[in-house]
Amino acid sequence: MTRKPPRNFRPEPFAYHEEVELRVDTLTNLGVGLGRIDGWVVMVPYALPGEQVRARIWRNKANYSEGDLIEVLEASPDRVAPGCALFGECGGCQYQHLAYPAQLEWKTRQIGELLQRLAGLEVPVESCAGSPKTYGYRSKLTPHFRRAPEGDGTAIGFQRADSRAVIDVPACPIASEAINAALPGERAAVKSGARPFKRGGTLMLRDVGGRVETDPAAVVEERVGEFLFRFVAGEFFQNNPHVLPRMVDYVLGEARAAGAPRLVDAYCGVGVFAICGARHFETAHGIEISARAVALARENAELNGAVNVSFVEGTAERIFGGLAFPGAECAVILDPPRKGCDAFFLEQLLAFAPRAIVYVSCGPDTQARDLRVLAAGGYRVTRVQPFDLFPHTRHIENVVTLAHEGGITKGGME
């Protein structure tokens, strides 16, 4: 029996739950298959480029429709069996049905499309650097639940792919072995009431060298190559330790290629780029607005014997105010949160005018927006290198090197 359409359903161009056939042309940066019927765009999650599929329409927007995948009529040669029984229900992964080499190809292409569409930049994009591990790579997992535990019926996991409801996730194949070994005990403690919650909550499991920390406030240690870093377990630290050292080396290689004597690590957190790069520069300087992160960064510098590194607690009004040298003497590394840089920060960065900028981003869309501002302010993109820190998901870490038009240097990793 056909379900009655929702009250706000737009009836054109397709009826509610009408089944349609289409050829999928591409993947959006959200990991959704996109095809057209008589020129009209139809979005179908879990459909792959080149496939002929049958989909059931559930929403018509002003300029496209959305449908659920009903049947793959002609499968892509890149379609593979997903590694998780919950794939398609759990919203955490989008690409487990896509062969890993094809995931890297599409992520490379998506970066190029974002830069062209949002930044107006036609620049070559180097092939996305893959992860040595495509399952079992995540070193942090944060399952959550919506309401107070009610025994074994409590769903503890992640948001469903098709709603805001939480789906129960007993194990996560992209999380590390240590996390999956510790997860049953943490789930049982919640469901038994051993860990009291008056309402919903979030668990935190951080794998640090095979030991799992569950206290988000604890200070833990993790190696990045030969360097050791202390950080707060529940706060930001890259979650794929198998790719991180390679990415750090690449970013520092790009900064060194500018030939500047000084390194500035903006949004420095606990000091990873500044400390790892200090030996390659006369001086390295980290800027961070979090006093707690600055304290840990200073501890990390001492821990790693980095004597030519300093850390400054910046303010929104004077980000570069604590630096006693001109921008022309330095390369700046940017690694902002997903929302990117705000307009005031970019204004100050352009006024500081560093010789080169290496922009690391987990949000390539906001990065592209910021690149448009930097390009208008006198910088030129010289190299674009994506890294796949998040296999089987739509997320991409992207590194863009920019040179000041007054002193363009060649990008390159030594």
Q: How far is it from the N-terminal to the C-terminal residue, by CA?
A: 65 Å
Number of individual domains: 3
According to CATH, the fold-level topology of the largest domain is: Rossmann fold
Fraction in helix: 10-25%
Strands ordered across the widest β-sheet? 17-16-15-18-19-21-20
Mean pLDDT: 93
Cα shape: globular
CATH architecture classification of the largest domain: 3-Layer(aba) Sandwich
CATH-wise, what's the superfamily of the largest domain?
Vaccinia Virus protein VP39
Report Rg. Answer: 23 Å
* Number of beta strands: 21
Please sum up the structure shown.
This protein is α+β, with helices and mostly antiparallel strands.
What would you say this structure looks like, in words?
The chain has about 425 residues and is an alpha+beta fold. The chain has 3 domains: about 20-75, Beta Barrel (OB fold (Dihydrolipoamide Acetyltransferase, E2P)); about 100-130 and about 225-405, 3-Layer(aba) Sandwich (Rossmann fold); about 140-215, no CATH class. Helices cover about 20% and strands about 30% of the residues. It has 7 helices and 21 strands. The strands form 6 sheets. The chain has a 7-stranded mixed beta sheet, with helices on both faces. A 5-stranded mixed beta barrel has the order 1-2-3-5-4. It has a 3-stranded antiparallel beta sheet with strand order 6-11-12, covered by helices on one side. The radius of gyration is 23 Å and the shape is globular.
